[in-house]
Amino acid sequence: MALLQNETRRALAELVQRNRERGVTDEMLKEKEKELIDGAAGLAATRLKTNFILHRIAERENIQVKKEDVDLRIKQESARYDISPEKMRKELQQKDALDDVADQILLGKTLDFLKANVSIEPAEESTVKEEKP
């Protein structure tokens, strides 16, 4: 349950941040608080299920994150925020967020694996006929 609560908090913070970036005032956010919380809870539950499945696939397919992958992501993100990679790494370490970065990379690699290896075939029409009593 704590996992779901933590993910709900994270999703709620993201929803609030996105709305603020779109110009939604704090007053308007307060008015929609219940809707935001409900939306965050649904988003969190879906994320947790999806991430669980992706982690199982990564484990089964031996998909791993290397130090170089994390270093590259930190370099990319630091350029995006116009700060040095060292400062970005230090901030991530202070927030205990390096594992989150590695996890994001792992999920991305797993999705890339699935895209490269998936084959979708149309479902056959059911040939079972209903029997009448």
Describe this entry's structure for a reader.
With 133 residues, the chain is mainly alpha-helical. It folds into 2 domains: 62 residues; 50 residues, no CATH class. 74% of the residues lie in helices and 0% in strands. Helix 1 crosses helix 3, helix 4 packs across helix 5 and helix 4 packs across helix 6. The chain is globular, with a radius of gyration of 21 Å. The mean pLDDT is 92.
Count of DSSP E strands?
0
Distance between the amino and carboxyl termini: 48 Å
Rounded to an integer in angstroms, the radius of gyration calculated over CA atoms is 21 Å
Helix/strand order, N-terminal first: HHHHHH
Low-confidence segments: none
Identify the notable features of this structure and list them briefly:
2 domains, 74% helix, single chain, globular, 133 residues, 6 helices, mainly alpha
